[in-house]
Design goal:
The structure holds two protein chains of two kinds. By secondary structure, chain A is an all-alpha fold. Chain A is 74% helix and 0% strand. Chain A starts with 6 loop residues before the first helix and ends with a helix. Chain B contains twelve helices and no strands. Classes of the chains: A mainly alpha, B mainly alpha. The A-B interface holds A 113, 116-118, 120-122, 124-131, 201, 205, 208-209, 212-215, 225, 228-229, 231-232, 235-236, 239, 242-243, 246, 249-250, 253-254, 257-258 and B 14-15, 18-19, 22-23, 26-27, 29-31, 136-137, 139-142, 144-145, 148-149, 151-152, 156, 237, 241, 244-245, 248-249, 252-253, 263-264, 266-268, 270, 272, 275-276, 278-279, 282-283, 286-287, 290.
Chain lengths: 273, 307
């Protein structure tokens, strides 16, 4: 069975690609921008004839453009943060798994210790202590999410290390870093891709949680979490300001979770066959 | 059992110490001081403030002082709520959060285990699929999306439940916050219970019990429930952490003056000591509750004690 014949994978992948395409093209096609306030057009409900399909917010800014911008920021943070966690997790896991023995035991004990910590609070602590900017958000979220990746990569490396091609490379006098980089790493790609898909929704969750509390993306920039926060404040009179970003965030999270699960099952099946 | 418990307690101490030192260093690595304002103070006033809060000492000495205070339950003064110590603020706000969290946890366990068991017994039917679909949705969608939507429909549009909170008022005022906080945990616990219940129901001792003519409910109650609860029990640690995180959001949305609200206010006001104190307190709570779960696990399942 090919990857795209799997219904869950193709439907969720399709929805996510559509949302991403809208987020990229939408603000560019719209006559409005995310910054301009218009106090004659505050809190207008969504209308197609009026040209503002998601309505306007309390400052009269166009919500379609703002929402699409929010999706961009949310996806960007999620992807970059996942890449940060990927680099840390793969490096850590591969070294622990390849070196093995006491080093491995100590490194994994450290990971176990970190698992017990309330990580989100540490991220908030970082946001309090340092200037809030996008770079810090990337690093903070990435630094939180690498634990699962490290565990999985270590397990894979442990089994790869015993394979004949690694012995062969070692016999030929290839150095350890080179074995890791050229012989182990390429074999980890499948597993890593699947787990990145599952890390992305976690990163989205952390980012939108921070932005919702006012500790993440700062005005006039926005993200889906910040839009939900703004929507909550207007929800009695303008429910669309809450429901649209909340629904979109829920849809994106659901799709990534289903996609990750689907990919994992798909690769597992092929593995056992 | 005593040996196992002691080993667990000893294992928890370095974790806790690591958390405290990490959190302390993070706050103190911050650029700029905690009293930096728009208003520029004269240099000698600043030096006086720094001395009053011991900020002029070398970092290791400050850390030792902080740890020394911690042992006596002293988390230092709050930088923003000038007349209160951090310990006083936590002491005042925590009982409310504890009440909210405990109720949510109890609700999550009762509903989650029941739903998971029903789904396992009716495996493959529409009931099962309904529970699983709800569960996936509950796991994926964060509290801060669920909470306002529930408020919008149940409180604002339909007016079935009050949206606000007051500690003195009856059960109806607490329902919405508690349900919101419990929902994701119900989803997780239902999923876990279903999987482990299906596993347990397929074992030989269940077949024996059935062969003796026991009804389904009796088999589940007397034989299947306890072994099926082990994965749920080991999920309790992460569940407690998730409830704490969720309570930050729920308290913010429903205006509940608990610890979570103090935490967010502190974070937005850059009240370093308050935020540091609450992080340390949360971490200690989580480490302690994880310890309780571990020990309970050892008491229920003797196999883990000898690993």
């Amino acid at each position: 069975m090919s990857l795209f014949a799997n219904r869950t994978i193709s439907v969720c992948g399709g929805i996510l690609l559509t949302i991403a395409a809208c987020a990229l093209a939408g603000p560019w096609l719209s006559p409005h921008d995310y910054l301009t306030t218009n106090f004659d057009r505050q809190l207008l409900p969504p209308s197609i004839s009026g040209g503002q399909v998601f309505g306007t917010d309390d400052l009269g800014r166009d919500l379609f453009v703002r929402t699409m911008l929010g999706v961009r920021v949310t996806l960007l943070v999620a992807i970059v943060a996942s890449l940060v966690s990927l680099v840390i997790g793969v490096a850590y896991g591969a070294i622990a798994g390849f070196v093995g023995g006491r080093v491995d035991a100590a490194m994994m004990r450290f990971v176990d210790t970190l698992y017990a910590l309330p990580f989100i609070f540490f991220v908030i602590l970082l946001m309090v202590a340092f200037e809030r900017n996008l770079l810090l958000i990337f690093v903070a979220i990435g630094a939180v999410n690498w634990l699962d990746m490290a565990r999985i990569v270590r397990g894979q490396t442990l089994s790869l290390r015993e394979r004949e091609f690694v012995d062969a490379a070692r016999l030929m006098g290839v150095s350890t870093p080179r074995i890791l980089l050229h012989h182990i790493a390429p074999n980890l790609i499948g597993v890593v891709v699947v787990y990145v898909t599952l890390t992305i929704p976690q990163a989205i969750l952390v980012e939108s949680f921070l932005s919702f509390l006012g500790l993440g993306i700062q005005e006039p920039q926005t993200s889906l979490g910040a839009l939900v926060d703004a929507g909550v404040k207007q929800m009695e009179g303008a429910s669309w300001a809450l429901l649209i970003p909340a629904g979109l965030l829920a849809l994106i999270l659901l799709c990534f979770n289903f996609l990750g699960d689907g990919l994992r099952d798909f690769f597992d099946v092929r593995h056992t066959n | 059992m005593l040996r196992y418990t002691l080993l667990r307690v000893l294992g928890a101490i370095p974790t806790l110490l690591l958390v405290i030192i990490l959190a302390f260093l993070m706050v103190h690595a911050a650029p700029g001081g905690p009293f930096d304002d728009e208003r520029v103070l004269p240099a000698d006033v600043e030096a006086n403030i720094a001395r009053a809060y011991n900020l002029d000492e070398p970092l290791p000495k400050q850390l030792l002082r902080y740890l020394g205070g911690l042992v006596q339950g002293d988390l230092g003064p709050s930088y923003r709520y000038r007349d209160h110590t951090v310990s006083e603020l936590i002491g005042a706000a925590f009982p409310l959060s504890l009440k909210l969290g405990a109720m949510a946890m109890a609700l999550a366990i009762v509903v989650g285990v029941s739903a998971g068991t029903v789904a396992a017994l009716k495996q493959g039917t529409y009931v099962d699929r309904l529970v699983m679909a709800f569960s996936m949705t509950g796991i994926s969608i964060p509290v801060f999306v669920v909470a306002p939507i529930l408020v919008l429909f149940l409180a604002v549009k339909l007016q079935w439940l009050p949206a606000g909170w007051s500690s003195s008022a009856g059960i109806s005022r607490m329902m919405l916050p508690v349900i919101t906080l419990a929902l994701p945990q119900i989803a997780y616990i239902a999923r876990l219970t279903r999987a482990s219940m299906i596993d347990v129901l397929g074992r030989d001792f269940i077949r024996t019990a059935r062969a003796q003519g026991l009804g389904t409910m009796t088999v589940v109650r007397l034989h299947a429930l306890k072994p099926a609860m082990l994965p749920v029990l080991s999920y309790m640690g992460p569940a407690i952490a998730a409830i704490l995180t969720g309570s930050v959001v729920v308290e913010e949305i429903f205006g509940i003056p608990g610890l979570g609200q103090f935490f967010v206010r502190g974070a937005l006001n850059r009240d370093y000591t308050l935020v540091l104190g609450i992080v340390v307190f949360y971490a200690a709570l989580i480490v302690f509750l994880n310890l309780v779960v571990d020990v309970l696990y050892g008491a229920i399942d003797p196999r883990v004690r000898y690993r």
